[in-house]
Write a structure and sequence with these properties.
Blueprint: E1 2-7, H1 14-30, E2 34-39, H2 45-56, H3 62-86, E3 91-94, E4 101-103, E5 112-115, H4 118-125, E6 129-133, E7 136-138, E8 144-146, H5 151-163, E9 167-172, E10 193-195, H6 196-204, H7 212-221, E11 225-229, E12 237-240, E13 250-257, E14 260-266, H8 274-283, E15 291-295, E16 298-302, H9 308-321
Parallel strand pairs: 1-2, 1-9, 2-6, 3-6, 9-11, 10-12
Antiparallel strand pairs: 4-5, 7-8, 11-12, 13-14, 14-16, 15-16
Helix pairs in contact: 1-3, 2-3, 5-7, 6-7, 8-9
Length: 322
């Protein structure tokens, strides 16, 4: 199998983090899989670089900021290559440009426009583990660009699509996708599988486990996704199409973004009582929504931002715990 593995910043923070991720990569490679891995910057590196830039210029030029921020991921892949070589495995680190990640010219929030996987394919064919710096690409002018927060997820799915990988695994500090943010709702339960379209809505409406653009790409190119924890062997959450029979419905999760709280699922427009039930659950907690929007894949209510977590808990109790 050809696997693309992505490790977030918390997964590669410090020497032990890199070694833990390296052991996962090594395990896949020694099991006979061809492996490409996409890495984020270590820990809080991106925030630290932003702070450092402000010491020199409170309004740094966007091009130079991209030049600076891209170094975080380059450090990660270089160190990972060293760790894997120390384990007796052949590895090569690549910048986004070297990996063929062509973008538009928008600094700070670039979009991928061209994927040229020849270098990655050549290194994989040579028996190496390919390590790709996430979050970055190269513009038509040859300048380094960055893809915005969460952009390493997008890099991973793009690499998986370009390489026709059998699976793209996103490793983070959580076990997978839950019915709500477990830090807000301790009773939230992990979902073994989530529909791709619903995951897209969840990401857009505030769920931080996967970047919206990454889900968009996985849906467009049919990339099989799985979200897993770097720190446990527990099964994760698969993200794939889950068709429903005509007229059927499914509630999957509740999430929040600022003061917008959303019940996400499929066929929700067929549930005329969903809005009144949500209103009753919220008003029972003294929360009076300012507006409602009901669509096939979400019911969104607007509440005061400071009550958003309370609203998430109330809706989770009503629709996922009762």
């Amino acid at each position: 199998m050809l696997l693309v593995l992505k490790f977030g910043g918390t997964s590669v923070a410090g020497v032990e983090g890199v070694r833990t991720a390296a052991s996962i990569i090594a395990g896949a490679a020694r099991g006979g899989d061809r492996v490409a891995a996409v890495l984020s910057a270590q820990g809080n590196t991106t925030d630290e670089l932003l702070s450092r830039a402000a010491d020199y210029n409170p309004h740094p030029p966007a091009r130079e900021l991209d030049m600076l921020l891209s170094t975080g991921e380059q450090v990660s892949v270089a160190l990972m290559a060293m760790a894997l070589e120390d384990m007796g495995l052949r590895a090569v680190s690549l910048t986004g440009a070297q990996a063929g990640m062509g973008t538009d010219s928008v600094h700070g929030n670039a979009r991928l426009r061209r994927l040229s996987p020849q270098r990655m394919e050549r290194e994989l064919a040579d028996g190496k583990i390919v390590l790709i710096a996430g979050f970055q690409g190269v513009s038509p002018e040859g300048d380094i660009t960055t893809l915005g927060r969460g952009g390493s997820d997008t890099t991973a799915v793009a690499a998986a699509a370009a390489l026709h990988a059998d699976q793209c695994r996103i490793y983070t500090d959580v076990d997978g996708v839950c019915t709500a943010d477990p830090r807000v709702v301790p009773a939230a339960r992990k979902l073994p599988v989530v529909d791709t379209g619903e995951m897209h809505v969840l990401a857009a409406m505030g769920a931080k486990v996967l970047h919206e653009r990454a889900v968009e790409l996985s849906e467009r190119f049919g990339v099989p996704l799985e979200l897993r924890s770097t720190f446990t062997d527990a099964p994760g959450t698969a993200v794939r199409a889950l068709p429903l029979p005509e007229g059927a419905h499914r509630l999957t999760a509740v999430t929040a973004r600022n003061g917008l709280v959303s019940l996400v699922g499929s066929g929700l427009h067929t549930l005329p009582k969903l809005g009144p039930q949500a209103r009753a659950a919220l008003e029972g907690e003294g929360i009076v929504p300012a507006a409602y929007l009901q669509a096939p894949r979400r019911l969104t209510v607007q509440v005061e931002a400071e009550r958003a977590d309370d609203a998430v808990r109330a809706l989770h109790r009503r629709f996922f715990e009762e």
